[in-house]
Amino acid sequence: GATYRDLGNPTAGDRVVTLTSVKDSGGTANGGVDTTTSGLPAAETVTVARLNHAPTLTTTAETPTFVEKGGAVSLFSGTAIGLGTGDGGQTIRQLVLTVSSVSDGAAEQLTIDGTAVALVAGSTTTSGGATVVVTVAGSTATLTVTRGGDFTTAAAQTLVDGLTYGNGSVDPTAGARVVTLTSIRDSGGSGAGSVDTTALSAAATVHVTPVNDAPTLAATGAVAADTTTAIVSLFSSTAIGTVEAGQSITGLQLTVAGLADGPNEILVVDGQAIALDVASSGTTAAHGLHYVVAVSGTVATVTLTATDTPAHWQGVVDGLGYRNASTVTGTSGDRVVTLTSITDDGGTANGGVATATLARAATISVVVNSGTPSITPPTVAPFIDLQRQTLSGFALSDTLGGSLYTIALTASGGSIHLDLTGIGVTAGANDSGSLVVTGSKAAVEAALASLAFTPTRFGSVSLTLTVTVGDSVLIGGMKSGTTTLEMVSAATPPPAPPVEPPAPPPVVVPPPVVVQAPQIVVPPPPPDVPPPVAWVPPTLLSAPAEGAFRVPVVSGPVRAGGDAGTVVVVNRIADVVVASSGPIAVPVPFDAFGVTQPSVVVSLEATTADGKSLPDWLHFDSATGTFVGNPPPGARTVEVKVIALDNNGHSVAQTFKITLRPGGQTMLEHSPIDRPGGAVGRQGLAAQIRAAHSGAHRQILALAGSAGTPVTR
Asked: Fewer Cβ close by (within 10 Å): the C or N end of the chain?
């Protein structure tokens, strides 16, 4: 019944148990023997095997907060690892831990043995030689840490105390990550009842706090020249992001630099035109964007606000446009539109950034239509009698140009004819004294090549052409140039019929006002009739000067105290009906006014009939005597007044109507000047000759043989 037991920390090995003697209780009196050493059982050997004891680990688990973009946070501290009693010399072979609620893939990492290990399936060797194997099930990552040659307890303690958590995502998932040490195993083995592994439950809870990132914007800014009043697109291929999913964009700010044309400079936002000359605010009709405009010097700052998706704001940026509506004047130069900032609704908590600073720019170079067109006339030989002659050779030139050219032709002493193929007629008519046509430069040049002129009188005749270049949408508006071609009909009038005897006695007339030969001498009118103005073929024109409008020299009454010359009305200006389907040009006839002395300088002005300024769409070129403009749609009548002023302080005026009729035909209404006693307006020379032949004007037509000596026919 004898047994062996070791109650201490046994040393492995054999234990030999030997029965060496047996002694009874009889004693040894009288030679008795109570002990024997023979015949005893053989010795027994007990083999002692030592058992392994599980290791121990104690630590303090932390509860840190990880803030986006912050440094990794420590998980455990004060770690102590022990081996079982009598297990001295053993090592730590394995450590297992888990991380729950993993949501951000490889961006979530634990630093183990000095090396960042991503919490995705795989194997990583640390800088200290450890091997970390990661497996993932659902949102839980399990990490098993081993090392060839194992860890000393001290090295294992350092490894646990060095564990940290980090998250490199720019949009980390908020919430807790629980890092749990689940087991530790030593090198003592587990055979014959030994235990080498201890289950653990030390857990560190990491609170992950996201921080708002500034939104992003990429766009291609336009670099373009702007010559028209049309809208120019500013940006394209815009891409906007909020970084954090589900956020919205709440605002955008931009500046427009280089402003110089007041309310004519316009920013188009969400389809709405916003003037950039003064501070303003409002809401766009299309999508309810609120805008605020602030102006400082030549720079306007525009702030747009609305809470909407990045995709919607991309459309807003791609839809931004610039427009310069200057149709009369304008300022050339660059307008630079810069996107300066964009804001999302992520806020600024924990150091977040809601607004990104931008420098995306578009540059629009405004080019004002400053080209001055010109017409170079051909050299024309004298006419043979009153025959049609082609006047080819007119040359057009301009420095800027446009898609539309308007030519206004006005004849004095003749009629005009053009081949109208490819061009439109906006006023006047073929085979008359006035014609206005429009078309491309090539079409207008082709029409001018066919220009024919038919004189309606002998002597001096003329043709005035005014070219207007550019569409009404050009910045700076349309520009005009004028030339006058003066011509002579070489034939003389037919002789007057013989005077039947008895010839009446010569009519004695007072000395006439002598202009230059040849001229028409007008006798004094009756006291109750205003003095008529007699027409002289325009061998002479009024004096030239800067901005002057040259008119024919005519004869008229002598003013008391000497005659320095004066401007007079010669022919009534006809009312005009114009088809209002595009730009118009209405010239004042060459011979509407005249002067009584060739030294007189005449200039023209124009107002409405009641003395007010012309409508915004209508402009009067005083040097060429032409009304030009681009009328708005619809029928309307404008009654205008043309005032002729001379350098001697005299002035006369005429009024006439310009009627705009959509789809109507262009026509002129010619009438003589109405004076008491009958119509006394200028007649053509041929008509005067015919009248002389009939005797109706025998005392009016005169030829001067020498200055001041009339010859009556």
From this structure: N
Q: Evaluate whether 149 touches 98 at the Cβ level (below 8 Å).
A: no
In three-state secondary structure terms, 8 is coil
Structural domains present in the chain:
13-48 (no CATH), 56-209 (2.60.40), 216-365 (2.60.40), 374-489 (2.60.40)
Distances (CA, A) of 57 to 82, 201, 202, 490: 6, 10, 9, 130
Among the listed ranges 27-31, 244-248, 354-358, 632-636, which one has the minimum average pLDDT value?
Answer: 632-636
Residue 205: its H or E element: strand 197-209
pLDDT band at 683 (very low <50, low <70, confident <90, very high): very low
C-alpha distances out from residue 579 to 13, 163, 224, Å: 128, 89, 36
**What contacts 483, CB < 8 A, 6 or more positions away?**
374, 375, 376, 377, 464, 465
pLDDT per residue as tens digits for the range 301-360: 999 999 999 999 999 999 999 998 887 678 889 999 999 999 999 999 988 999 999 999
Distance CA 249, CA 388 (A): 74
φ, ψ (nearest 5 deg) of residue 106? -65, -10
Which pTM does this prediction carry?
A: 0.53
Decide if 407 contacts 466 (C-beta within 8 A): yes
